[in-house]
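$ fold --in a.seq
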Amino acid sequence: MDPKLLDILVCPLCKSPLLYRKPENELICKADRLAFPIRDGIPIMLEDEARRLPVEEEISR
């Protein structure tokens, strides 16, 4: 994932910064506990495509 792109992408719902999880190939919004997938190098920033993170799943930087 391009670091410059990561600097400008925010959560489409709350506008919070996103964390990049390389192993899962996801962008994480801590505030909304959503994981947005990255497919073929393209972040899919749609709420319907995001995975809800369970409360027990730790979100770390």
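$ fold --in b.seq
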Amino acid sequence: MQVSPAIVKGIAVSSLGLYAGILTSSTVISITTPINVLTQHLKNVLCTLGCWSTVLGGLATGAFGLSYYLAAPGERPNYLLCGLGVAPLSAAYLYLVSLFNHKLAPKCTRDQNDLEKQKDEKLPQHHPEVKDGEAACPFSKMNNAKTLKPESERSVKCHSYMSLHMSIVTGITIFTFGKCILDGFKA
């Protein structure tokens, strides 16, 4: 049974598009939501989005690799290599930034100023009021009675640092997705 390169390219580009969409959603949620709501009420939702983005990123990487392999040696377009590398490179980049942010940077600890800033953060317009220990995300499996481990709570400074890097990766992923679509029409 022979696999059509066009079908594999379609799967690759579709997976990359879904990956870019999930990454964009995660970034928007992270930027617009105060850190205390993220760590207390939306942590499971973001973890689920992370799992799905890993699956879709792996599928896109595999499909782009297979498309590149199936293409004739003289007709291997560059966008296949771009699509092949974007998910693993973005995952590695975010992992290293997160590692630096949470393990190696001693300045990313909570202090009294962070707690005051966090209390002053505004929720998005028309969002119900969230008080510590009362509200929970309807999609979260987390029980309100459970307390978080201290290392899962991050400072406002760390939150803004990670949001910046997530925005960078999201922009690069969306650009690569657009490049794959436009270059795919040329071929």
